[in-house]
Amino acid sequence: MDKKSVKEIKEAIENLELSRYMEYIDLLRSDDRKSVQNLALKLAKKLDKIRAEDERLEKINIYENEGYNKGYLYIGGIDEAGRGPLAGPVVASIVVFGKDTKIEGIDDSKKLSESKREELFEIIKEKALDYGIGIVNNEEIDRINILNATYLAMQKAINSLEKTPDYLLVDAAHIPGIDIDQNSIIKGDSKSISIAAASIIAKVTRDNIMYQYDRMYPEYGFKSHKGYGTKEHYEAIDKNGIIPIHRKSFLKKYFK
């Protein structure tokens, strides 16, 4: 190793197989050059990060594995996006993975950047055995209320699957009116890989809908706030009024 330049060593460890990390860390640490020893430190930190992610990915399969151990064969995770906004639909998604599926970086959609969500959106669709999306618009939300609209979106997502799951993992909810065993998990979008995946599918789908609305109604700023009750959004309503995609039941003060 001492015959190689620092540049050559950097290039070597960039494409290093994980199985050889410890070997190289030991070699680099024994080098007299401080810069090479610093590379050993960076490689060790990278290995720690990889191991931590592997451990996290094991943990977020726990609820799925519990289901398999109980005899369930086709497990779907469900989450929604858009319960709180003043405008636009509520969107639910369900994702079914094969046993022991791992996707690096997958997590609660709220913890991820938009670019990471979009990247994972495509990976999830590729790796899923099946996935479904349910959308309930603002008019239906006003008619049946947001809670029932959320349940309806979840039911629609389930019904859009090619095969009905025999077990559901649901983020902090129990869906009424369906004859499928369910497990309601508080903060499930950070504890279950299939719920995390569903949160990403639902969030990206809803955001794309709101981008379309932004092009239709640019004066409301939907691109930035996605319909939530920000200062910018309320100022746009005060200036321009209510539009067809607003949830009137969320904006009752404007109808007195």
Strand order in space, largest sheet: 3-2-1-4-5
Runs in which pLDDT lies below 50 for 5 or more consecutive residues are none
Helix content: 40-55%
The outline comes out as: flat
Q: CA-to-CA gap between the ends? A: 78 Å
* Secondary-structure element pattern, one letter each: HHHHEEHEHHEEHHH
Structural class: alpha/beta
Specify the biggest β-sheet: 5 strands, mixed
Q: Give the radius of gyration.
A: 23 Å
Mean pLDDT: 95
Question: Would you count the extended β strands for me?
Answer: 5
DSSP helical segment count: 10
Pfam families: RNase_HII
EC number: 3.1.26.4
Organism: Metaclostridioides mangenotii
Enzyme class: hydrolase
Task: Walk me through what this model shows.
With 256 residues, the protein is of the alpha/beta class. It is built from 10 helices and 5 strands. The protein has helices spanning 6-14, 21-29, 34-59, 62-69, 114-127, 138-144, 146-159, 193-216, 222-225, 231-240; strands spanning 75-81, 90-96, 130-136, 167-171, 181-185. The chain has a 5-stranded mixed beta sheet with strand order 3-2-1-4-5. A hairpin with an 8-residue loop joins strand 1 (75-81) and strand 2 (90-96). The longest helix is centred in the first third of the chain and has 26 residues, at 34-59. It is found in: Cytoplasm.
